[in-house]
Amino acid sequence: MSHHAPGENYLNTPAGLKSWLTTVDHKRIGIMYLWSILFFFFIGGILALLVRIELLTPKQTIMTAEQYNQVFTLHGAIMVFLFIIPSVPAALGNFVLPLMLGAKDVAFPRLNLGSLYIYWTGALMAVSSIVLGGVDTGWTFYTPYSTSTGGAVSLMTMAAFVLGFSSILTGVNFIATVHKLRAPGMGWFQLPLFVWSMYATALIQIMATPVLAITLLLLTMERMFHVGIFDPKLGGDPVLFQHFFWFYSHPAVYIMIVPGFACISEIIPVFSKKTIFGYKAIAFSSVAIAIVGFLVWGHHLFVSGQSTLAGAIFSFLTFLVAIPSAVKVFNWLATMHRGSIDLKAPMLYACSFLLLFSIGGLTGIYLGAMAVDVHLHDTYFIVAHFHYVMMGGTVIAFLGGLHYWWPKMFGRMYNERLAAIGCALVFIGFNVTFFTQFVLGSRGMPRRYYNYLDQFQPLHAFSTFGSWILGAGLFLTAAYLLATFRKPMDAPKNPWGGRTLEWEADSPPIEHNFDFDPVLTHGPYDFRPERPKTNEPVAY
Amino acid sequence: MNQSLTETSHAGQEVDQYGEHHAEHDDRLQHHFATFEQQFDAAKIGMWLFLATEILMFGGLFVGFALQQSAHPDAFVAAHHHLDKRLGALNTVVLLLSSFTMVMAVWSAQNARRKAMTTYLLVTLACAATFMVVKFFEYSHKFHDGTLPGSFYRVQHVGEVPNQFIFFSFYFMMTGLHGIHVLVGMGLITWLIIKGRNGRFDGTYYTPVDLVGLYWHLVDLIWIYLFPLLYLIS
């Protein structure tokens, strides 16, 4: 058992760079993931600002067309593979999930560290592809362009291949941890909903990522040896690549958004001081999204020569995803109904999420309808739609989660007022940037174009202006969060009054998480004023 | 919270959350697990999930093969005549035998028969090596004939069915990826033999033997699908 002196915590004990680089502590690994993904969020964000500045005018503004292709490709690849996919699971999840279960660590701590090093290797490969020729295919690597263009496409695809393994290892770890390391008294329906969502995410990571791995391997083989699988000149099938790619990458959309649900399901009950409404509905809807998400990839191929019958089936299945998604949103709203709502920063982000994700989700229904998609395919409408889901959904939820667990991770409180201002700037800037793009897309502005017709300029300029507000909000957020390191470590154990187990550990926790063996005596969302006696039935 | 459960008694025994006792100094039980059983179950779940990812990864190749075969049926039939069915069958038998000896190795580990375990593992390793040697001869034959993947395909006979190189692309990618898995398996079995000789495994702890066994069966299983797929087309 851990004997520790006062002031000792996982951040300072044991000390030294080497102890960090060789650690198997899930909290330290989570923190190293956190700084890594935030670094890439910064890089990807700068690239996004550059793309928007270039689009300020219809002709060349600050870069050439070739540079523009590389910049938007890198923005997409970095944001998807290096930031969003590992954001909630590998950074926040690694830190919080074992604490929520009352465990000392994840099931395979060394594998966990291995996944971090694999992530770093993949990141290094992705970044060096910029120097070694650049990549101009877009993050989707569509053939036959990706098998014929120059540059460092093979290096970038192999980077995504490597990053996939780090994602798989995190998934395997989480599933085994949830199965075997729950605290005594914690059955499946006493799990915090964060854990259910992480479990669903892990299932998708494990089932989808290997298909991406083989697809990218085949693409690399096609580029290097001309094996004749995707290249039509050699008897291959370029649409097969699209099928393979989206068989992973559509479920990967859920790898990105379900962790967003995870954060929101924790934040809303705590800041409404009310039991979550429809616990089982939320839990099972995560799993339902994970399953149905595997059957919808064909909606990316409506205009790729797929048969109309297949298109109709994929369209129908796509609509099905809306049901579990809506179940979640309605349950969150019902949780807030007549709750005692406290609009602290995490809750502000959660409320932003509800609005932005709803817009992102509903526009997904438009695009899932074949007749509408033919018109909107490859326009800014798509760009706006997936930014509403990926940034308005996942990134906003990640920021909410970051604020929610910041005191637990670092033992420090941030400035609540600045946090509210930051959240407002992000919310306004985001909508100015991307709502404009729905309009642009519906008027026919194609995505990924370097030049455009003069008539689109006012809307493009407005969108660019929004990106500056958004950037200002994020820089402000970075500034006040970093400023907390100049303050003393005085965060209380449970600043928000949460009922899940991580709030019973110190802030920041000790190396082995708890100085006692946690036993579950109440549900994760049990906010009744008096704690139930042990012989009473426990409500969740 | 019941903090009294965490107390450590002074007899060198730890009382864990399930009230079970275990010796403190067995380094084979990692600190975050309460019992060997819990550790074994977690490892087994992890291994099955890993095997699922392997099947899905090979699945991509199988689907690609099936689609390309239906697009170029004549080329695939013509090309597969270059393969030697007898060598493929020999390798199938060798791998099936190795799966049996692997099962026996796991059984020996469970029942703490250290010598028998080492023997069975050595036989398994020998089978794996035999497989690779046969594969080496098959590969070098193709290098000699020029029936190589993609742009390295060098056979130019008049009147030959076109696009045969696609078959060989798949042949080399599938058997190559499988061969890498056999090599990894040989490394793991060697590691087990060394660990076993150092007395690492007994009836309480044989997790690595069990997991490598599972892995080895998967490698075997994939070959059982590859053999008819590549060698027995009609």
SSE succession of chain B: EEHHHHHH
Write out the CATH superfamily name of chain B. Cytochrome c oxidase, subunit III, four-helix bundle
Head-to-tail CA distance between termini of chain A: 31 Å
Could you say what the CATH topology of chain A is called?
A: Cytochrome C Oxidase, Chain A
Roughly what fraction of the amino acids of chain A lie in strands? under 5%
Uncertain regions spanning at least 5 consecutive residues of chain A: none
Put simply, the count of helices of chain A is 15
CATH class of chain A: Mainly Alpha
Q: How many β-strand runs of chain B? A: 2
Shape of chain B: elongated
Quaternary state of the chains: heterodimer
Order of helices and strands of chain A: HHHHHHHHHHHHHHH
CATH topology name of chain B, in short, is: Four Helix Bundle (Hemerythrin (Met), subunit A)
Largest interface: A-B, 52 and 49 residues
Give the CA-based shape of chain A: globular
Taking the sheet with the most strands of chain B, its summary is: 2 strands, antiparallel
Helix content of chain B: 55-70%
Please give the CATH architecture of chain B: Up-down Bundle
Mean pLDDT of chain B: 87
